[in-house]
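Running this now, will post back.
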Amino acid sequence: KDVRISTLREVYEKFPSSYINIEIKDDDPYAADKLYEEIEAHPGWEQYVVVVGQYCKSLGHFRSLSLSKGKNIASAACENDVITFLLHSFLRTSRVWYTFVQDFVPKAFQVPVRSGLLSLDSSFFVSCAHAMGKYIHYWVVNDPREMRRLVEIGADGLITDRPDLAAQIFRDMGIKEQPSQEEKDRIKSLSGKSFFIPEFDVVEVHTCTSIGCVAVQSLENSLLMASVIVVGIILCCYIPYYRSRSSSSSRSSSSSGMKGPSSSSSSSSSSTTQRKMKKQQ
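Update: finished.
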């Protein structure tokens, strides 16, 4: 289809005043070095950039470079940042921790809706992040109903393969204004059509890479397994008990049924004997 991946420089030349989300896909700090060099070589870029990454090593290196040069380029939380924030949010210590112990550098959370058994699309998580002045962006969301639901609980942004659907939902909800005809024409002129629509939806599953995330998922799996074992033990103990109760109840009913006619016969013979004695008298 004669499609190629644009360079970062080409993207900025086409969209000089658009905010760009850049993800470092590599755990090697060298990738962070090259990205910082490219941004530094073009003054003004840093105010339109949000640098993200799953790997804390490379993302942390980029932050160190940025802070050492006094730029403080916006970045999102890595895995360990998310786990630490969740822990302090549950303990209600996040404000104290990030005020007196550790500075919370990330400007946003870019997270999946779910990681293992851990749900990150809760109003609790969103409200805790907003209370700290942080943004929430979810990935990868292609279903229109899911897009609407996440926006309704407070999501600040969505990463999607279907920007056409997301843009329309934002307009329907009054978040984004209807584009002018000039804007529509400009978008169409870039590639000949408004958006490239994928032939099928890609469902991304989050895989942990940091020790903290792996530990949380291991704990979740252990708790799930323990719950299954406990339920199994309860069923194994209850089923024999239930059967014994049912058997005892059946024997009691049978015994009661056998005693009824015997008593009746006894009573009948007793009354007959009494009548005979009266006749003899």
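Residues 211-280 form the longest helix (70 residues). More later if anyone needs it.
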